[in-house]
Amino acid sequence: MEINPDHYKYMPKPEGEPEPQEGQPAESLEAVEEVVIVESRQTEVEETPALQTEPLVEERFDKETHQDEEEGERAAFSDLEEGDTALTAACKAGLRFFYDLFNPMLIPAYATFLMFELTLLALVAPGAAFPYALTVLGATGAIPFIAVFVLLRVGSLGGMNLPSRKDRIFPYIIELLAMGAMTIFFLYKGAGANWIWLIFCGATASVLVNFLLNFKIRVSNHCTAIAALLAMLIVIKPVALPGPALGWWAIGTVGMAGLLGTGAIVLGKHSLKEVIIGYATGFLPIILFALIK
Question: pLDDT tens across 245-255, in order?
Answer without folding.
Answer: 999 999 999 99
